[in-house]
Amino acid sequence: MKISIKNNNDYEIKMTVELSWDDIKDDYNSQVNKELSNAKVKGARKGRLRGLQKELWLKNNKDYINSSFVDFALNKYFQNALQEKNIVPINQGQVSKLDFSGENSKFGFVIAFEIRPNINNKIPDYSKKVNIKTNRYIATDKDVNKAIEDIRFKHATMKSLNKSSKLKSGHFIHADFTKLDDKGNPILDSILPNHQIKIGEGLFVGDLEKPFINKKIGDIVNIKIDQESREVPYSVKINKIEEQILPELTDKFVKMVDKNFKNIGDFKEKINDNIQFNLDNENKKEFQNKVIEYFIDKTKFSPPKSMVENYKSYLIEDYKSKNQGSYDEEKMNSEFSEISTKNIKWLLVREFLMEKEKVFLKDSEVDSQIEKSIKDSPNYKKDIIKFYNDQSNRDKLKEDMLNNKFFSKLENYFINKTKEIPTDKIKKS
Question: What pTM value is reported for the model?
Answer without folding.
Answer: 0.75
